[in-house]
Specification:
Blueprint lengths: L2 E5 L6 H12 L11 E5 L4 E3 L2 E3 L13 E4 L11 H12 L3 E4 L4 H6 L7 E2 L6 H7 L4 E2 L5 E3 L3 E4 L3 H15 L1 H11 L28 H6 L8 H8 L3 H12 L3 H19 L4 H7 L5 H12 L3 H7 L20
Parallel strand pairs: 1-2, 1-5, 5-6, 6-10, 7-8
Antiparallel strand pairs: 3-4, 9-10
Length: 328
């Protein structure tokens, strides 16, 4: 069983803290004994906003966890506690995967874990993170950054994106998608946080792509061009590209490729289709094309992905073991 340790101290943001507890310690576990073992670790009883939290263990437990989550740090103008910073650094040196939610990136930066790495945080604080820690390659436009053993997320809702990404890495897309459905959140959001800086998140049916996006998803097994989508949306290809940037944060073709890869992941996990059949069903054409795009996007070949994340259709918890062995 994989152990997830939530590092807590006074001054943490309660939204991100509760979100991590829900993903790794609550919803979606079902009867599956291979789900995460969540431990809340802190020096003493702590205050998070209006809430009081009693930790399970001290900070020394972080070094024996597989994954350490650092929630948002409320007051970025104040240096995070030295014992928290030291414990996070020690856990990383011991081999733990470290992930920060929102302004928790300031804790990781203080521990030196982001030096030379790409990272993000809430868009309102990316400039401050870059100024205070010049060795960090701050990316203000993304929802989260995966640097392997160190991961960071943007603000608030992007913390959920990163948590679901971790579940996807450990248990596969089918489990992450099923968990997202139970939590009533998108399993994966396209684009970056730049789309939320000056414009509100569009409500379903309230933006120019509300018809064309589901139309394209239902036809992933067919050739679809930008011109096809533009005709469906009743606009020029140039206007379509502008609206795609505004709504999804990416281009029409990149968005379409992402949908095809997601469909391929689900088919590899839940069916016995050959790679050629999966390529055909996702509009990739040939197995060679699928393998090239799949490896570039997911990081492994389709066959290796299937062996690692083969899910039995049914219960959320009925899945093969992920690739991160337990350290506890």
């Amino acid at each position: 069983m994989t152990t997830v340790a939530l590092a807590v101290t006074d001054g943490m943001l309660h939204f991100e803290l509760a979100l991590a507890c829900e993903v790794f310690g609550g919803a979606g576990t079902g009867a599956d004994a291979s789900w995460y073992r969540l431990r809340i670790c802190g020096p003493r009883a702590v205050r998070a906003g209006r809430f009081r939290l009693e930790p399970d263990d001290g900070f020394d437990r972080l070094a024996r966890a597989d994954t350490v989550i650092v929630p948002g740090w409320a007051d970025i103008d104040r240096e995070p506690p030295a014992d928290l910073v030291d414990a996070v650094r020690t856990a990383h040196e011991a081999g733990a995967r470290i992930a920060s939610l929102c302004t928790g990136a300031f804790v990781l930066a203080a521990a030196g874990l982001l030096d030379g790495r790409r990272a993000t945080t809430h868009w309102a604080h990316t400039r401050e993170l870059a100024l205070r820690h010049p060795l960090v390659r701050v990316d203000p436009d993304v929802l989260y950054v995966d640097e392997g053993s160190v991961l960071t997320s943007a603000g608030k809702a992007a913390a959920m994106d990163l948590c679901l990404h971790l579940v996807r890495l450990d248990h596969g897309a089918s489990v992450a998608n099923a968990l997202a459905r139970r939590l009533v959140v998108p399993p994966h959001r396209d684009g970056g946080q730049a789309q939320f800086v000056t414009t509100p998140v569009p409500e379903p049916g309230s933006h120019p792509l509300s018809d064309v996006l589901p139309w394209a998803v239902q036809r992933l097994d067919q050739p679809i061009t930008v011109e096809d989508m533009a005709r469906r949306a009743g606009m020029s290809a140039r206007n379509l590209g502008r609206h795609f940037r505004s709504v999804t944060g990416t281009t029409p073709l990149r968005w379409l490729l992402t949908q095809r890869i997601r469909r391929a992941q689900e088919l590899l996990e839940t069916t016995d289709h050959t790679v050629d059949a999966v390529a055909s069903a996702t509009g990739m054409g040939t197995a060679t094309t699928l393998r090239r795009h799949f490896h570039r996007t997911v990081g492994v070949a389709p066959d290796a992905y299937r062996r690692t994340f083969r899910a039995r259709v049914g219960s959320l918890g009925e899945t093969g073991a992920g690739h991160r062995p337990s350290r506890s």
